[in-house]
Design a protein that fits this description.
single chain, 8-stranded mixed β-sheet, alpha/beta, about 425 residues, 15 helices
């Protein structure tokens, strides 16, 4: 049987053109986030199955690539259940591993700890445009900072990066999980039903107010409760005045500290931002992860037609490991989607070093070849990229190929001219 040459479904091979963009973006990420005080760190790609299945990862826990026990630990018989066979899994995000990492090393880390983590994650998801089963994630997190300075810094760092990549007119949508809950409580929903209500609300951008009302009715909720709930969304605006409206409308259902905090974040970001974007209050923003406890945010881009990043506050997650809660907030950019958009717009890496190609006639004597290589070494020492190739019969095709790869100068070397 012939070996399979295509990658496994949901995975992809990366060609040199894309790899050049990826390398540049990774470098720019590290350079930009470093100016905000973030430190690079790393965790293993394999995590304990107990950590990955702790009901912190929402729907992602259904998408884990699980790993069988090895050697003598793996004992299979008719009575075996999954817990007997599995002890690890490939990480589906970087947040759960970060919390384990911090719990294990807190005494060795500064407080607050500003972490930058980049690495591949795996989800047994259905592949689609901009979504794969293996993909790079890029997270920045601030652990140990309870004030909304954390949210402000995370949003500013991320938007500064996007601005450097020439993205403009995108939107940071922001909400607070506590506002979500207060709106549901004010309307008359039982707390036990919040998850169901929020899952339906999260579809608002696809099915609209009428669609949300229809689905809530199908779930058996009282029509008066539904009408009161959806009336809030019909009246609210997507700016600071919208937050003030919610604050006034909900009264004692919402602690004013939460709405005032959201207003402060929006004001501060808007006042000092360096990129061209808008920050908008979106009371329909839910975010799927169950570990979020406060402000949540997403990046929306019209050219993608969806989210290219998101995050929020998760103050109770580290406590699952240590028993003591630690303030925590993070923001993840959709690295794969950002790279895809750059490739689609034929993005050119700024300030790229000159690229030269040497085409050398075949059977070049050793002493003359040494002279050519020495010359290339001199140019490389000056930062020039030099690619030495033996000359092919179809020289025109060879040159065209080099030009398509970005080589701006092509020099030919013949035996009788050296």
């Amino acid at each position: 049987m012939a070996l399979k040459k295509k990658p496994v479904t949901g995975m992809k091979d990366i060609l040199p053109q894309e790899m050049a963009i990826r390398d540049y973006v990774i470098g720019l990420i590290k350079e930009t986030y470093k100016t905000f005080g973030f430190s690079s760190m790393e965790t293993p790609c394999v995590e304990h199955i107990e950590n990955l299945s702790s009901k912190q990862g929402g729907e992602n826990e259904k998408l884990i690539f699980k790993i069988l026990k090895r050697g003598e630990k793996l004992k299979i018989d008719e009575a075996s259940c999954e817990a007997d066979l599995v002890d690890g899994g490939l990480r589906y995000d970087l947040t759960v591993p970060l919390c384990r990492y911090y719990s294990n090393h807190a005494n060795e880390l500064p407080s607050p700890f500003k972490a930058l983590q980049m690495g591949n994650v795996w989800r047994a998801d259905r592949p689609q445009r901009g979504r794969y089963r293996q993909f790079m994630q890029c997270d920045i997190d601030i652990l140990g900072e309870a004030s909304n300075l954390a949210e402000t810094e995370l949003i500013l760092a991320t938007t500064t990066l996007l601005g450097k990549l020439d993205f403009e007119n995108f939107t940071i949508r922001i909400n607070d999980r506590r506002i979500l809950k207060a709106m549901a409580a004010y309307s008359g929903f039982d707390e036990a039903s919040y998850d169901t209500v929020f899952i339906i609300l999260d579809k608002m951008d696809k099915i609209g107010l009428d669609g949300v009302a229809e689905e809530l009715e199908k779930e058996g909720f009282d029509k008066a409760v539904i009408d009161k709930y959806l009336a809030l969304f019909a009246e609210v605006t997507q700016d600071i005045d919208g937050v003030r409206f919610v604050k006034d409308k909900l009264g004692d259902y919402l602690d004013s500290e939460y709405s005032d905090g959201l207003i402060s974040i929006m004001k501060n970001v808007d006042a000092v931002k360096s990129a061209k974007f808008k920050i908008a209050f979106d009371p329909t923003l839910v975010r799927g992860m169950s570990y979020y406890t406060g402000p949540i945010f997403e990046i929306s881009m019209d050219e993608y037609g969806g989210s290219v990043g998101g995050g929020g506050r998760y103050d109770e997650m580290i406590g699952k490991f240590t028993g003591n809660n630690v303030p925590a907030c993070g923001f993840s950019i959709g690295f794969e989607r950002i790279v895809m958009l750059l490739l689609e717009r034929n993005y050119q890496i700024p300030g790229a070093s000159a690229k030269k190609a040497y085409l050398v006639e075949k059977n070049m004597p050793s002493d003359k070849m040494c002279t050519i290589i020495a010359r290339a070494c001199e140019e490389r020492a000056k930062g020039v990229q030099v690619n030495i190739n033996m000359m092919k019969k179809n020289k025109k095709f060879q040159k065209d190929q080099l030009i398509s790869e970005g080589y701006t100068e092509i020099e030919e070397f013949f035996i009788d001219k050296l």
